[in-house]
Specification:
The chain has ten helices and 15 strands. It is of the alpha/beta class and about 375 residues long.
Length: about 375
């Protein structure tokens, strides 16, 4: 599957943009403030019905208008498909797949996956573990869509156990009643942790390779760090019982996959604490490209959306990144100048000039 066209209406500073995307690489070029990042965000919004930049989605609607809409056309083996997302502040988002209303675009069959790099996404490397857990769970869902329910089932069991802990803490319920929810939580905890472990096992060797491709010379590594040492549900139950008094005292469950982490390491040390800004940036790119390659092996390469990715890379790393962008799937890159992205002669590349939120295609000859 590939994205062939995107129609963006009243999204941030863009009143209307009609983008024809190349099969491999599309460059959104323009001066600072022209709206390149906004269009990249619009593509992500069209793929996921979510913003990759803000939790306040009122910001997405162009000033002076009431509704924003993004429509995507994709080409798959079974023909063309159309996905649409509309949003009016104060009302639920409206998502359509081939003209049919869907409750959640993320559940729509055949929707394009999207992987995004923004400078602020460095928080995925250096921020709180919750960001990395959510990212890892999204990868699991992309690799094995049928397993996305595991995370939801664990969350429901965790909420029920925490609610019961609150009752125990206030003396409204005997602590023994936690036995049932300990067993339920443990069952889903083992399944969730195993899904995450398998996903990391798949991408770790590719991550190391991509980090090397992008010039992170040394010993990069990716590790799934579990809080529990138990390998089965009975073992997790035992650990929960051992910590029950502490949980009641604190008023919440303090042990389980909701406290795990995905560690990005370099030379055996966590990049979040000891890596330079440049190393963290390259590691994040390596992670995203590794995930793309693994998903491509599963027949679902995501659309890569890379914002301002070349600005802090030297010429050699820019060339390496350009080669990776052309290696598999489909990529969109924002840049102030097209020649900052090295292009191979004969590459299937489109260059779109962005000016004040408007997009205009431009003919381009690839450099030798």
């Amino acid at each position: 599957m590939r994205l062939t066209r995107a129609l963006v209406r009243d999204f941030r500073n863009c009143d209307r943009a009609d983008l024809e995307l190349a099969p491999r690489l599309t460059l959104l070029c323009g001066s600072n403030g022209a709206g390149k990042t906004n269009l990249l965000e619009a593509l992500y919004f069209g793929c996921t019905a979510r913003s990759c930049r803000t939790a306040n989605e009122r910001e997405l609607v162009r000033r002076g208008t009431e509704v924003t809409r993004v429509s995507l056309w994709t080409q798959a083996e079974d023909g063309e498909h159309v996905f649409e997302v509309g949003f009016k502040p104060g009302e639920p988002k409206r998502a359509l797949a081939d003209g049919a209303r869907v409750e959640r675009l993320l559940d729509a069959a055949g929707r394009p996956l999207a992987s995004v790099f923004l400078p602020e996404r460095l928080e995925l490397v250096k921020g709180a573990p919750a960001l990395r857990r959510a990212h890892l769970d999204s990868l699991v869902a992309a690799l094995w869509p049928g397993r996305s329910e595991t995370r939801a089932a664990y969350s429901r069991a965790l909420s029920q156990r925490n609610a019961l802990i609150a009752r125990v803490r206030h003396g409204a319920t005997p602590a023994q009643q936690l036995d049932v929810w300990d067993a339920e939580l443990a069952r889903h905890a083992v399944a969730l942790a195993e899904d995450r472990r398998r996903a990391v096992e798949l991408i770790e060797p590719v991550f190391v390779e991509r980090a090397g491709d992008l010039g992170l010379n040394g010993l990069p590594a990716l590790r799934y760090k579990r809080r529990t040492r138990a390998s089965d549900a009975d073992g997790v139950c035992a650990e929960l019982r051992d910590r029950r008094s502490a949980d009641v005292e604190r008023g919440c469950t303090t042990h389980g996959p909701h406290r795990d982490d995905l560690a990005l390491l370099f030379e055996g040390r966590p990049l979040r604490a000891y890596g330079s800004q440049g190393q963290q940036r390259v590691a994040l790119l390596a992670l995203l490209f590794a995930e793309r390659d693994v998903l491509a092996d599963h027949g679902r390469p995501p659309l890569m959306l890379l914002d301002d990715v070349m600005s802090e890379l030297d010429s050699e790393r820019r060339e390496r990144l350009g080669q990776l962008a052309l290696a598999a799937g489909q990529t969109v890159i924002t840049t102030t100048e097209a020649d900052r992205v090295p292009l191979e002669r004969g590459s299937d590349v489109a260059v779109i000039q962005v000016r004040a939120g408007r997009a205009e295609p431009e003919a381009v000859e690839a450099a030798a």
